[in-house]
Amino acid sequence: MSLDDADNRQPGGSPAPDDVDIASLPLRPFREVYEDAENLGKFDRTGAYAIFDARRSMQYLGYSKNVRRKLLMHASVQRGACQYFKMYTPPSADASGPDELERVLKSWVLQNGRLPPGNGPDRLLWEVPLARSSLDEQERQERVRERAIVPTRRTRERTERARSSYRGDEDDDLDLDEALDQMGRMAKKVAARTFRVLQSGTKRAAQMYDELRAEYVEETEQDRRGQSVVIDPLDPFAPAASEARRKQQPSSAQSRRTRSAERQQRADASASSDRRARVPGYGDGDDDDYSLMNDWTRITQQEWFPVAALFGFVTLMALLSLGDPGVSQVGQKTLGM
């Protein structure tokens, strides 16, 4: 016979798992599960159980093949709510299946009048040990944050030191403001200089673009539909590009040769004018005077010119002294002799 066969049978003597009166089952303290050595093994059997708190209010309903182990697991995660328990043991193996035990629990819920909280929203806190451990960790972190909010003597001392140091550095704050203003002015100058450089570069780029566009030759040509089409000889994707290339490429090469010949002619003319300017007496009017002045300037800039001039002056005076004695005396007085 089972632990509580007298409570699990109807007056006729047949088992009635669908109508088990939970009020008739004995209320046992939890110490019989994990403290009383005589009861070890007494609850190691299949059955349904109900857990009650200190006020004897139903907290959880369950069933297991080993009720004692399941009760110990619940006590490890909900020790405060696990104060008493009631246990039902089926009379036979046929009445020990999950379906039969589920019907017993449903009848207990109807007798209790409500679903226990452990079988409702708090089910994970009763059945999963990790859920309870994670909740404990959250509670611990909340307590740490609460303690951090409350100022201690050490935190108050640190706050006072920080305030005193801040009051002592007010002059430094003024210097910092001046430094920030100076940095702002420097930044404005750099920005203005950069803008000017970019503006000049943009103007130069626009000028180069205009010069390049001046070399392009755009012509209009009638397409097959009779519409005017602008042909760019350097654009391979322009309309009628193949025909335009056949027409424009020779003309472009010829124009390049023409421009090269013109530049060569201008260079030859400039060189010829330079040669004519170096020949004294070549040309007419003002051009001749200009050439002679250039030649005289170039001659007087030579190093030997002063020596030659002095030598010629002395020779002239010597010749004059040989021809006329008066002139010789004048010449000697002039020379300091």
UniProtKB/TrEMBL annotation:
<keyword id="KW-0812">Transmembrane</keyword>
<keyword id="KW-1133">Transmembrane helix</keyword>
<feature type="region of interest" description="Disordered">
    <location>
        <begin position="237"/>
        <end position="287"/>
    </location>
</feature>
<keyword id="KW-0472">Membrane</keyword>
<feature type="compositionally biased region" description="Basic and acidic residues">
    <location>
        <begin position="136"/>
        <end position="148"/>
    </location>
</feature>
<feature type="region of interest" description="Disordered">
    <location>
        <begin position="1"/>
        <end position="22"/>
    </location>
</feature>
<protein>
    <recommendedName>
        <fullName>GIY-YIG domain-containing protein</fullName>
    </recommendedName>
</protein>
<feature type="compositionally biased region" description="Basic and acidic residues">
    <location>
        <begin position="157"/>
        <end position="168"/>
    </location>
</feature>
<feature type="transmembrane region" description="Helical">
    <location>
        <begin position="304"/>
        <end position="323"/>
    </location>
</feature>
<feature type="region of interest" description="Disordered">
    <location>
        <begin position="136"/>
        <end position="173"/>
    </location>
</feature>
